[in-house]
Amino acid sequence: MTHEDDADREEPSPTVHEDDADREEPSPTVRKGGENVKMKPGKSGKLKYGTVSAIMLVLVLAGLIALNVGAQVLERKKGWRIDLSFNAIASQSPETVEILKNLDTPVKIYALYRKGDEDAPLMELLDRYAAASPMVSWEQIDPAMNPVLIRRFTTDSVTPGSDSLIVWCAKTDRFRVLGPEDYVAIGMATETGSYTYTGWTYERSITGAISYVAREKIPRAVILQGHGEMDQQTLSSFETMMTDNQYEVVYEDMSDGSYVPDPEDLLIFFSPLRDLTETELATLTSFAGKGGSFLFTCEYTDPISDMPNYAALLRSYGFLPREGIVIADTQDSSSYYNGNQVWLLPVMCPTDLTLDLIAGGKNHLLLPGARAFEAPGEGDRNLTTATVLRSGDTSYLKALNTETVSIEKTAEDPEGSFPLALEARRITTEGYVSRAFIIGCSAALADRQLYSMTDSRQMMIRIAEFLLRLDASDLNIMPREAVRPSLSVNSSAVGSLILVALPLGVLFVALLVLGPRRNS
User: Fold this and answer.
1) What's the rounded Cα separation, in Å, for the pair 116 and 495?
2) Helices (DSSP H) in 354-419: which residue ranges?
3) What is the pTM of this model?
4) CATH at 388
5) Is the dihedral of CA 454, 455, 460, 463 positive or negative?
6) Residues 322 and 181 in one domain
7) Counting beta carbons within 10 angstroms of the beta carbon of residue 416, is it exposed (0 to 12), middle (13 to 18) or buried (19 or more)?
8) What does the pLDDT look like over 145-202, one tens digit per residue?
């Protein structure tokens, strides 16, 4: 056989059996528990475990995201967030809850804050208002980006600015603008004699504004002008306080003769210095005859003896001002404030006007320089006059003239307890009942600092309710504390307990986890 024959010869092909082609490769085996266990080809236990872990991780993350979103919705829409701040600044008082419960008119609140500059406690409180009543809604607005809205709520006396609220009711078309100055209460530090911030009044201001704008009819307090009375600038704090308590305050000048008072309004004379004309006296007499009511204030320096028509109006209610200033006796330290004998701490007498104040402990007032009145007499069946405030039992009356050089008591000075405020009811010839109140110190009712230091704000609102025959409506919402209370021995007990409980808790959990492993 030649080599060419060998070259042409083909190599034999390997024999392949069909059964062998269909036969699977043997699966690898692993030794487990003394037996050979086959593993399925193409699958790994490690891969299966990683897939399940990834799925579980995704599900946990999705659950946490849903829980976070749901919690935010419940916090914002349902007010479910617990206020754990030391002063509960975002919580609502029962007075607010009751007002929101009875609110039947939609109220919109615009919060004029730029993004990133929000007042966090205020925003949280607004969420709670919206959650508490479907009639209240609010929206954050950037004032720089919404000049049309700012112009819509701008008046001659008010211009909404940054960091303020606009509370508006479309039905009444009434609104109120609240600024940072409306959120704080001011008080005097007795140790230093200086004024300081004592609390936050977010809730009182917002609730008062909501009640004011949604109220169908608002009682009016008319401050008369034209006789040298205190003007609008001087009475700005009084006006704010009254509007905060759902009163409309307007100023009317009687000197031109065009103003005709409405008997449903309250007329206020804030210490006039010039007399009424005969025409004005006739107008006011007609007003009183139809059941109109008056509030009078006067100072110890007012020349009432030179104003016969005005004095006649006062006398018709049994009000007879005395000349001079009331001085407290140095021996009666409870009747004056901080060593100043002319800063009187009056005694509140029980009358139908003051019974609620006395029962609620709201009888602390301060009269910095007061005028006295004659004690009310028996009167007649048509006139009833009563003392509301009086000075200490050993106070005295000092006449002020060019010869007065000292407030020290002399033998000529009348001594006793003097009426400092009076109330009166008079039945008119037309059959109506006209009411009046007078106080010998205007600052007691109109000074903003005294609103914070004393109960003069509550007193003024109660006077207005008495004169207008209204039910009690003062928002007795206490300011929230502005400064965190100092730590004491008792206050550290909870913290010490937590410091001990935390490591003990970790140790207990560790024992639960490691105990079974040690025995395995």
Assistant:
1) 33
2) 355-359
3) 0.65
4) 3.40.50
5) negative
6) no
7) middle
8) 999 999 999 887 788 988 899 999 999 988 989 888 777 666 555 555 555 666 777 8
